[in-house]
Amino acid sequence: MANSNTVLGTRAQEAATPAISVSKLVKRYGDMVALDHFDLEVRRGEIFGLLGPNGSGKTTAINCILALLTYDSGTIRVFGEPMTPASYALKRRIGLVPQNVAVLNELTVEENIDYFCSLYVPRKADRTPLVEEAIEFAGLGDFRRFRPGKLSGGLLRRLNIACGIAHRPDLVFFDEPTVAVDPQSRNAILEGIRRLNEAGATVVYTSHYMEEVEEICDRILIMDHGRHLALGTADELKTMIDAGERITVESPDVADETLAAVRALGFVVEASYDGRELDVRCRRGEHNLVDLLGVLRAAGVNIGHLTSRPPTLNDVFLELTGKALRD
Q: All domains of the chain, ordered by start, with CATH?
C-alpha cells in the first residue's frame, strides 16, 4: 500500500509541475535587451498562446527555452528539470514546428518524416509505426511518395508539422503554423493541434492570427520589449483593458452636429461617419448602446442595421502594446 501511495504521490507531483517554467530571464545582444527579466509558466496539458509584435522577444524566448541560445541570467526548467544544451533526454520530449518550412527537397514525404523521426528514435523498427501515424495524422497518405516541390503550400505546412511531431513529443512548439495557407488547410492544421493536445501533448502556439489564438488557446501571454505584459484566458484579458464594444449604425442622415454630440458622450473613444455608416468605439460601460441610441433618436436619425461587437483580443493587444500584431 505504501508503494502504491508513493506512485500516486509521484504522479500527482509530476502533474502539478509546469511543462515550462521561466523566471527572470535576461538576454542581451550588446546594448540591446531582448529579454528583460521575462517570466513564463506553461501548465502541462494546455494550449498556451504566446503573442507579441515583431521584435518583442518571442523567438528569443523560445530559442532560450530550447537551449539554442545562451542567456545572461535567469532560470529555465522543462518538466521540472533544468534545460541545458546537453539535456538530451528532455529534448527528445520536445517537438518544434518552425514558421519557415524546414524539410529536405531531395526526399519524399515519407522519407522526410522518417528522417526527422530518426533524430529521436534511432531504431527503424520503432520508427515505422510512428512515421505511419504521423502520415495519417497530417492527412498525407495520398502524397507519401511526393517530393516537397510537388506539394501545395497547405500540404507543405502539414508535412512540416508531421516532421515535428512524428516522435510523439510531450511538448510541441508551433511557430506561425498557418501562415499563407488556404482556409481548408488552416482548419485541418488547427484541428490537428487540438487532437495532439487531447492526446496529452502540451502546446505552445504563436500566431499573427488573433482569431486562431482566441479559438484554440487555453491561456495567452502578451509580451513586448522582452517583458511579460499580461496573462490570462481571452475573456480575462479583455477585462484588463478600458476598451468596450464597437457599435456600428447604418444611417443615411447623420449630421455634423449629431456626430459632434456622439463624440461628446463620455464613453466614446472615437466616432466616424462615412455618409452611410456611423462607427463608434466605446470604453467599457453598462449603458453605452442605450445612451448612443438616445442621442441618435433625439436628433431624428433614421437607424438601419445596427451591430454591437464586444472587444476582441486584437483590441487588448493594441491597447497593451500600442501596436498592431504585425508591427
A: 11-238 (3.40.50.300), 243-310 (3.30.70.980)
